[in-house]
Amino acid sequence: MSGFDDSAERKMQFLFALRSKGVTDTRVLAAMETIDRGPFVRGLFAERAYEDMPLPIACGQTISQPSVVGLMTQALGVSPRDKVLEVGTGSGYQAAILSQLARRVYTVDRHRRLVREASEIFRDLDLTNITAMTADGSFGLPEQAPFDRIIVTAAAEDPPGPLLAQLKIGGIMVVPVGQSDAVQHLIKVTRTDNGLEYDELRPVRFVPLLEGLGKDT
Ligand code: SAH
Fold first, then answer.
1. Whether the Cβ atoms of residue 64 and residue 93 lie closer than 8 Å to each other
2. Can you tell me the distance from the alpha carbon of 201 to that of 186, in angstroms, rounded to the nearest whole number?
3. Residue in 63, 64, 89, 125 to alter for ligand 1 test, most ligand atoms within 8 A of Cβ
4. What pLDDT shows up at residue 180?
5. pTM
6. How far apart are the CA of 141 and the centre of ligand 1, in A?
7. How many angstroms separate the first and last alpha carbons of the chain?
8. Which domains does the chain have, with CATH numbers?
9. Which end of the chain is more exposed for a tag (fewer CB within 10 A), N or C?
C-alpha cells in the first residue's frame, strides 16, 4: 500500500472512531479533519498519533484522547465570534482545534516548555488566532476576560472561582472535576442571567490542575 493510501486510510479510521464515540457535530469533525494530530505528538509515540488514545508528551503531561477532545469541543458549543480561554495547553492540539471554530483562542499552561513548543507548531501551521502564554490558569486570564467559552483540560477539585467569574453571561465552561486519582466527571457550567447551571456529562480521566508554575520555568 502506498504512503498516500496509508494516510488516507488512517484518517478515515480516525474520523470513524470519533463518530462512533459520539462526536457528531459536523463543524467539530471538520476541524478535527483539518488539524493533523501528528505534529502535536513527538518522539517515541509519534506513530500512534492517529489512534484514539491519550499519549505522553513532555513535562510528564499527556495529549488528550481525540474522542475526548471532540466531545469536550462539542459540549463547548463554540461560535465563530467567540473568544475562548483554554487552561492546559499541553501539546497545543485542543487549542488548534478550537482555533478553527472560534475568533480568538487564549491558551495557558504552567509549563513554559509546553507553551514554547505549542507556539512553534501554531506558527508552522499559520494558526494566527491563538495566543499561548505561561501562567497558572487557575486564576484565568484577567487581562483578556470575560470569555465566551472556557475549557479546562486538567482536573480541578471544583470549578475554579476565578474562571467562573471570567465567564460572560451566556458563556459556557467545560471542566473535568474530581480527585486526580479517582473518578472525575466532565462538567458543563453555563452562566445565565440567574446564575450558574451545572450539567454532568461523562466520566473522564485527566492530569490534575496544579498550583503555580512548573519547575522547568
Ligand atoms: N489540552 C492539552 C492536554 C492538556 S494536559 C492538549 O491538547 O494536548 C493538561 C495540561 O494542564 C498540562 O500540560 C499541565 O501542565 C497543565 N496544567 C495543570 N495545572 C495547570 C494550571 N494551574 N495552569 C495552567 N496549566 C496547568
1. yes
2. 5
3. 89
4. 65
5. 0.95
6. 15
7. 45
8. 3-204 (3.40.50.150)
9. N
Q: What is the pLDDT of residue 5?
A: 63
Q: What secondary structure does DSSP assign to 133-201, as a single string?
A: EES-GGG--GGG--EEEEEE-SBBSS--HHHHHTEEEEEEEEEEES-TTS-EEEEEEEEETTEEEEEEE
* pLDDT confidence of residue 3: 53
169-201 pLDDT per residue, tens:
999 999 999 976 678 999 999 999 999 999 999
Q: How far is CA 203 from CA 51, 59, 112, in A?
A: 20, 25, 29
Helix, strand, coil tally for the chain in percent (to 5)? 35, 25, 35
Q: What is the atom index within ligand 1 of the atom nearest the CA of 69?
A: 7
